[in-house]
Amino acid sequence: MKRILAVWLPNWPIQRWQASEPEQRDRVQVLSQVERRGQCVVACCDRGYQMGIRPGMPVAEVNTLLQARGLSATEAMTHRPYDPAADREALEKLARWACRFSPCVDVEQREPADTLLLDASGLAPLFGGEDSFLCQVQQGFARIGLKSSLALAGNIGTAWGLAHHPPAELAQRDGTGRTLVSSDTEQESLVRQLPIEALRIPATLVETLHLLGLYHVGQLMQVPRGELKARLGMEPLVRLDQVLGHKTEVMQAARLPQQFAAQWILEHPTDHPESIHTMVMRLLSQLLQQLAAHDLGALKLTCVLQTANRRETSFEVGLFRPSSCNKHLRGLVDTQFERIRIPGPIQEVTMQVVQFARLEKRQQSLFQEMSWKDSSAPPDHSQEISGLVDRLASRLGRDAVVRPRLVADAQPELAFSHTPLVGQPPRRTTRRSEFGPLERPWQLQSSPTPIDVTAVMPDGPPIQFRWQGEHHQVERHWGPERIETGWWRRRAVRRDYYRVETTTGHRFWIFRELTRQDWYLHGSFD
């Protein structure tokens, strides 16, 4: 018998906010977004609702409402922009957590999403009956600080409708908001009593049905289907068939994140380094076997050593490219293991692969060295380079082996950042130059160098300049290219850049600083 459990999380955006920042519960919490009337409220906490704040109310009106109560908006209210994408992402993460109650958990597809759907078919005996199952699920959500309304029925439509609009005669007497439908006859009777809003149709369609005098599903069922289709389209009929169980809905189970971990628990703790090292290496071998079975390689792994009195020490190993080579990883783990200080007799050793990726496979030439001598293509030393980077990062530290990465910034000397080479997931990037080969130099000065420039007019291009004790006569120039930083910078930068070519054939990138009218050399094209 098919059984579906719907878990509705009322006011989910505010609940998510309160769960992540419980220290904000004492303040009025308001989420807003820009609408035609300006910044308007989308959701607010229970305290704000009691003060009279409602969805759709302009934020300026909320400030006036708080001031009328003698409260300062900046001190009593926390105001943030509404982020439905983050709400759905957090709900999908919560769906993976809820897999402890059911192997199949789905997030409703409609927007905004605030309901989880669990396939409860055949699970009731494992929890001591359906009443006990509902109670344990709700208690689980309560332990992580979330309020929920639950309904267990024979299909998704009925369970969703009863979770959002629980009937008074079936709600638990303790007021916990749990609804249990035990038979098909009872389910059909309850469906007829559900309001039109329980059909999961748009608000505009609900308003149209209300104008026609239809407020409950039972009233809608009495209207001829042909007339409904002709007036309102197919959506009300499809939703009606779903809530009645005449049309099946498909659930998409939340995908659990793949985990690779190994653990060793000792009956008698030990502080012997060689014994602990042996355990670490055996756990490493187990992890590599797990990774090899899925054709994966490790990018970052951690090892935690715990004593009997819960004191911990740990180390981390990062890699430049995914690897499952036992010899290579053993060497990196050995380097880190030598550096740790064992706090006491170790009782538990846990090793986990934190980041992993698909192994790279490349076809190599049978006579690689010989073919290189006869061609201009050098041999592929990527594996040797990866091993060198891993060893350097293991000895010098992850933040000591970095590479530059372009950053979108108007100021050229700040248009890059340094990111660690190891422990980062591989990214596929397409090589695309934003500027032509002659527009920006490949080589920049570490900092712009002041130079003496002669120009035809105060705002004109340079005709000659002096740098490193030599005079350079400008043969040709291109520009200017105006570069200005945004208002959020404490010190604004305004520059006119010129690409110049001297009579000797050298090409430079120089600019005029518009505030002080000083000239600087920033790079060269040679």
Please outline the major beta sheet. Answer: 6 strands, antiparallel, barrel
Unreliable stretches (pLDDT < 50, length at least 5) are 170-174, 369-380, 428-438
Beta percentage is 25-35%
Radius of gyration: 33 Å
First and last CA, distance:
77 Å
Count of strand segments:
20
Percent helix: 25-40%
How many H/I helices?
16
**How does the overall form come out from the CA principal axes?**
extended
How are the strands of the largest sheet arranged?
Answer: 15-16-17-18-19-20
Give the integer mean of the pLDDT values.
82
The secondary structure category is alpha+beta
Quick recap of the structure?
With 526 residues, the chain is α+β, with helices and mostly antiparallel strands. It is built from 16 helices and 20 strands.
Task: Report on this structure.
The chain is α+β, with helices and mostly antiparallel strands and 526 residues long. The protein contains 16 helices and 20 strands. The strands form five sheets. A six-stranded antiparallel beta barrel has the order 15-16-17-18-19-20. The protein has a five-stranded mixed beta sheet with strand order 5-6-1-7-8, with helices on both faces. Helix 7 crosses helix 12 and helix 14 packs parallel to helix 16. The radius of gyration is 33 Å and the shape is extended. About 5% of the residues have low confidence.
